[in-house]
Structures are given as C-alpha cells and as structure tokens.
Write a structure and sequence with these properties.
single chain; 216 residues; Penicillin binding protein transpeptidase fold; two-stranded antiparallel sheet; 4% strand; elongated
C-alpha cells in the first residue's frame, strides 16, 4: 500500500501518461539552423580550398622580388656638373625605404592601405567596404579594394587584366608575398614601382618630374 498522499499519486500518474517532455519548438529550430550553418561552413571551406588549389597551378614564383633590378634613368652631365639630358623609357630612381621620408610613406599608407601592417596581404574588410561603396555610388568613380601588397603583385607578377580569375590569383600571391617578405620590403617595392604619370615610376622620380627636386 502506497504511503504517498492521493494527490501525489494522481500527479505521478498524469506525468507518466503524458510521456517524455517534447523539446520546445524554438530550440528545435535553433538546433536545425546551427546544424545547417555548420554543414554549410564545411562545404564553403572545401569550395575555397578547391578554388585556391585550382588557381595556384602555374602561378609565377615570388622569388624574383629578391632580385629586383629595375631600369633607371640614364643622366648625361656636362664637365661643370650641369645636367644635359636624360634617357629612359620609364623614369625611375630606385631608393631604399630608409631613404624615403616617413611622411611620404605614411601618406601612401593612409591613401592606399590603412591596414597594411595588420593584414596578411588581403584586407577582406577593406574589400567589403569598397564593394559596398561601389554599390551605393553607382555612376561615380569606383573605389578599389586592392592592398599595397596586391598592387605589388599586379605590377611585378601579373598583368593589368581586369577579371575575376586574375583577382583570385592576385590574392593568392599577395598572401604568399606577405608570408615571405617583410612589410618594409613590400612597401619599398611599391614606392619604387608605382606609376605616377608622365612615364614616371616611383616617388623619387616623381619628385624630379613634378618638382625638379630630389625626394629628400
């Protein structure tokens, strides 16, 4: 004979007759969303790996940046030291980064790649921002999302072709360069190779072309 009060026996029988508690609907929905997102993330990661593997085949080696030896201006002087003529298809004077004024470096970083020292060759947030601005500013000049490292890739290793395929290759090479060279080396290459108009390449040549002064 049970020692429990009649009311407790009735409550126990009612609970047993109802069976196990069902998981609330909202919890089931959240579980389904989490599982779907997890599986989707796995497939997305595999897709990215396959794309990288596909476009990595046949890419140029980044080792050639070690032996950067650009064509520079040939200058002809008179016996008294006066400059008589310059000969060059591309006006360029190579300078090591240490000889380029800090405020010049900072100006280019501010204008072209504010997160240069924190990203690994590709600034995904900067690219997303540029895409958003281009969508909002249709009909106006488009903003670029390329980092300084990506511009080095374009200038030294790839063509200027505008295509989705080239952008993927550019991103892969930018990541490789960022892991193989110091930020100082990458910035040095950029500031000596960037095209600044009137057949002028690099900031040192631009100083002479536009101001008739040495960069310092």
């Amino acid at each position: 004979m049970s020692n429990l009060p009649a009311s407790d026996n009735e409550s126990e029988k009612t609970a047993l007759s109802r069976g196990p508690r069902r998981t609330p609907r909202i919890v089931r929905v959240l579980q389904w969303l989490f599982a779907t997102a997890f599986i989707g993330g796995i497939f997305a990661a595999l897709a990215v790996l396959l794309v990288i593997e596909h476009y990595s085949a046949g890419l140029p080696s980044t080792d050639q940046l070690n032996t950067y030896n650009p064509a520079v201006v040939t200058r002809l002087y008179a016996a008294d030291g006066k400059l008589m003529a310059e000969y060059a298809k591309e006006k360029r004077f190579f300078l090591p980064l240490s000889a380029i004024p800090k405020h010049v470096q900072q100006a280019f970083l501010s204008a072209e790649d504010k997160n240069f020292y924190s990203h690994q060759g590709v600034d995904f947030m900067g690219t997303a921002r540029a895409m958003r601005n281009n969508i909002l500013n249709r009909g106006h000049s488009l903003a670029g999302g390329s980092t300084i490292t990506q511009q080095v890739v374009k200038n030294f290793l790839l063509s200027n072709e505008k295509s989705f395929e080239r952008k993927i290759k550019e991103a892969i090479l930018a990541y490789r360069i960022s892991n193989s060279y110091s930020k100082e080396k990458i910035l040095e290459l950029y500031l000596n190779e960037i095209y600044l108009g009137q057949s002028t390449y690099g900031v040192a040549a631009a100083a002479m072309t536009y101001f008739s002064k040495s960069l310092d």
